[in-house]
Amino acid sequence: MDTFAFISWDVNPNIIESPIMIRYYGLLMAISFITGYYIVRKFLINEGADAEWIDKFLFYTLVGGVVGARLGHVFFYDWVDYKDNLIDILKIWEGGLASHGGAIGVIISTWLLSKRVTKKNILWALDKIVIATAIAACFIRIGNLMNSEIIGAKSSSESAFFFQYDAEKSIGRYFDAEESNVNIEPNDSIIELDGTAHPLAKVTVHVSLDTVNSSRYYEHFELSNRGNIKNANDHFFTINSKPEIITSNGGSTIVSTIGIIPRIPTQLLESGTYFLIFILLFIGYWKWQWYTKQGFLFGMFLTLLFSARFIIEFWKEHQTLDGGASLNMGQWLSVPAVSIGLFFITRALIKKSA
Predict the structure, then answer these.
(1) Which of 177, 192, 194, 331 could pair covalently with 327 via S-S, beta carbons 3.0-4.6 A apart?
(2) Which of 260, 286, 303 is the last residue in one of the domains?
């Protein structure tokens, strides 16, 4: 194997960094809610619902979805980090949303909407909201890609992504340098580690340090990342290569070799799957009038989306840490969601045929 083809993902997650920072993730989330609003609005008009319900649908589901997704991430995945810094729970702009928590939040907010506003069965509202939620999930996963987060397992496929921007940012932290002062240039060489081939790359770091301090910084960087490819967020590893340090009036330039870790772009797998689920539910609503079988659309959404989530988790890095023998948190949470979905599908079909 002489070459190693992959895709370098060198995208800054910030669209605008000053004076007000605007991120792709935030923009895509906003687009998802706006799109969802008009989709639900069209459904409500089609069914002759009260016009004043439209804005209330958006408010309840927006608050419920965001709050639920944030708390789901905190309690399901990262409570150890948040329990001593509760104020950080409010820093939603730093990322950290869980789809399972968002689903729970939407269900609770829809229940409140049904009790306080529509006075209809909660399933009447959920059958509409889940269609908008499917396209929102599609947009949000694209936002995850822009953030270089929710990455997959390491891969030698030509479609694998090397998250170069995030790797350069991570390296910059070791040298107190901005990511703009770090550059990674992949080449055609490879290295075998743990029975897996990895591409090599030249990494260049520009720092305002003298030669001696630059050497110390590099030693810390090299030791901290030597052969370390098991953590879920790793994009590179060091290989005990001797750096070249070039000193100038502006500081030092450190040139060395690292191994890089291309990964399966699970964000795209999920986004594409969620889009297909949206298309199916949307057509089902309009062409096959699934909304007349109360709870059927809700059940289809839970069953399809969380079945897909369960399967895609097998391609995520944390699933491989123990040899893939056990299920992770996302999969355990998907099992009851699929079960509930199947229950509502069966219930809707039985009631319709009765």
Answers:
(1) 331
(2) 260
